[in-house]
Every structure is written in C-alpha cells, then in structure tokens.
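REVIEWER CHECKLIST
Item 1: Sequence provided? yes
Item 2: Single chain? yes
Item 3: Sequence as submitted:
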Amino acid sequence: MSTAVVSAWALSLLLGLFILLFIVRIVLTWYPQVDAQKLPFKLAVLPTEPLLKITRAIVPPIGGVDISPIVWVGLISLLREVLLGQQGLITMSLY
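Item 4: Structure as written out by the authors:
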C-alpha cells in the first residue's frame, strides 16, 4: 500500500470523525441541560468549538437556533466528496 493511499485513507477518516463530532454537537443543542464541559461531551466540544466560534460570527443564530454545526457538516461532507469521493480529485489521481 503506497503512502498516498494511506494518506487518503487517513484524511477520509479524519473528515468522517469531524462530521460525527459536529453531529454530536447538533444533538447536544437539543438537550440544553447537559453540561458540555464534562466527559464524554467535552470530547466533542473541544475540537469543534474553535470552528463553530468563527462560523457563529459570520452566521448568527436564526430564530434562536444555532445552525453553525449544520453548516460545518455540509462543508466537510462536500470537501470529503470532492477530494475522496468516487470521482474525487485525490481518488482519481491515485488510479
């Protein structure tokens, strides 16, 4: 297995993990009584909060609903498909 294939696999895994973490953040917004600063929720909050802060400054909450995690799920999904999808840029360059 070449280094490029391993790198593509690792990138896919990383992007998938971030999608999962942002989905956890979306679910956490449904339960405001949950303390996000305690484990295991803190594992989802720490890596995603810097990106969400930037997005909240650009896209304010709509009707009191924070849509910034939804924006990131869409952006990361798009990036993953463009780079690593069936006809993605990285995938096509490997074969």
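Item 5: Key structural point noted by reviewer: Residues 3-94 form one domain.
Item 6: Recommendation: ____
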